[in-house]
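Database export, one record per block. Field names are fixed; values are copied verbatim from the stored entry.
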Amino acid sequence: MNFKSRFQRRTSIDITPLIDLSFNLILFFMVSYSIGNVSAITVHLPRAVQAGAQRSGDLVITISEKNEVYLNDVNVRMDILLDELKKRKESVKDGAVVIRGDKMTNYETIVRVMDRLNRAGIPKFTLATTRSAD
């Protein structure tokens, strides 16, 4: 005698958690990639009417409002900045150095950084600004 159950079990694999995980990973990488291009040091950039699109560089020099200099988010003293720039000169593409100076930064500090860039053999750089509404 062949007995059949009234409840037939269907085997299936629920892939909904897998799809959720995939979309969360994609979202995470999209957000972290866009954050990774900009320096992690918070500065208030000066405003300019003719500000171009913000671009990332191989080398980002950030100058805080306390006149602290960061080279790719690592604090660097001004006296060793020239040596660090000379070491990294080969890895810098043409014009790929971005100087992000806070609007409250001492002007002399920015000029000293630009001077060290020129002395290191990196004459092309970009000053980062934000677009003004005027």
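Remark 1: The mean pLDDT is 83.
Remark 2: The chain has three helices and seven strands.
End of record.
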